[in-house]
Automatic annotation (TrEMBL):
It catalyses: O-phospho-L-threonyl-[protein] + H2O = L-threonyl-[protein] + phosphate. Pfam families: Metallophos. Residues 58-63 form the Serine/threonine specific protein phosphatases domain. Its EC number is 3.1.3.16. Belongs to the PPP phosphatase family. This is Serine/threonine-protein phosphatase. Its cofactor is Mn(2+). One of its GO terms (cellular component) is nucleus. Keywords: Hydrolase, Manganese, Metal-binding. InterPro entries: Calcineurin-like_PHP, Metallo-depent_PP-like, PP1_catalytic_subunit, Ser/Thr-sp_prot-phosphatase. One of its GO terms (molecular function) is protein serine/threonine phosphatase activity. SMART domains: PP2Ac. PROSITE patterns: SER_THR_PHOSPHATASE.
Length: 242
């Protein structure tokens, strides 16, 4: 998650390296809540256009017109004097974004989490695009689901949609599909990354000093080597919020 923290995104590119010298897979939630969502999404889309082989952008649950109306992105566009047609163009763009990716054939990446409706990875390729985010089903779960220490699948009460899933769900998913790791975002974690299910799943969060509740959380980028060894680069906020 970047959530409109433009200077922290610049810090990532400065510390880790910018395309085309580094290849990036972003996991969604580029806009809303932060003060410079416009700069964040414009820069990321420009990098995608300029370096299509080095930059990929997955969709997050906040790449949605409904959430953009309620969590700040559309208000930001309005304050800056942009017309409603620009908001519509962003919505059209978000509706075309992919929902998942597999790195090196072994690391499954998405914004939210797993789904009880996901039986084959080919199902994701067949999901219709462009499309709004539905309130249930595979697309919804890939954007909204969360890992939790429960047995199996339980309703995701805190989100109001989708599921929470337990460690054995992750282990079964990895074993069934011949994968090593699930890499997802969607939740703030104090150190910027947090493992789950005996290191079968990792949550990443790249917006440091994100909110009043998490005023000192780190942001993290996960680096994946050619042999799929993973390491983490952590950083603090570029500017401290008052």
């Amino acid at each position: 998650d970047v959530h409109g923290q433009f200077y922290d995104l610049l810090r990532v590119l400065e510390v880790v390296g910018a395309p085309p010298h580094r290849r990036y897979l972003f996991l969604g939630d580029y806009v809303d809540r932060g003060p410079q969502s416009t700069e964040v999404i414009v820069l990321l889309l420009a990098l995608r256009v300029r370096h299509p082989d080095c930059v990929a952008l997955l969709r997050g649950n906040h790449e949605s017109a409904l959430l953009n109306k309620n969590y700040g992105f559309y208000k930001e566009l309005g304050r800056r004097g942009y017309s409603a047609s620009l908001a519509k163009r962003f919505a059209d763009c978000f509706n075309c974004m992919p929902l998942a990716a597999v790195v090196g054939g072994r690391i499954f990446c998405c914004h939210g989490g797993l789904s009880p409706d996901l039986h084959s990875l080919d199902q994701i390729d067949r999901l219709p695009r462009p499309a709004d985010v539905p309130r249930q089903g595979l697309s919804c779960d890939l954007l909204w689901a969360d890992p939790e220490y429960v047995i199996g699948w339980q309703p995701n009460v805190s989100r109001g949609c989708s599921y929470v899933f337990g460690p054995e769900v992750v282990e079964d998913f990895l074993r069934t599909h011949g994968l090593d790791l699930v890499c997802r975002a969607h939740q703030v974690v104090a150190d910027g990354y947090e493992f789950f299910a005996r290191r079968g799943l990792v949550t990443l969060f790249s917006a440091p000093n994100y909110s009043r509740r998490w005023c000192c959380n780190a942001g993290v980028v996960m680096c994946v080597d050619a042999d799929l060894t993973c390491s983490f680069v952590a950083f603090k906020a570029k500017y401290t919020k008052n």
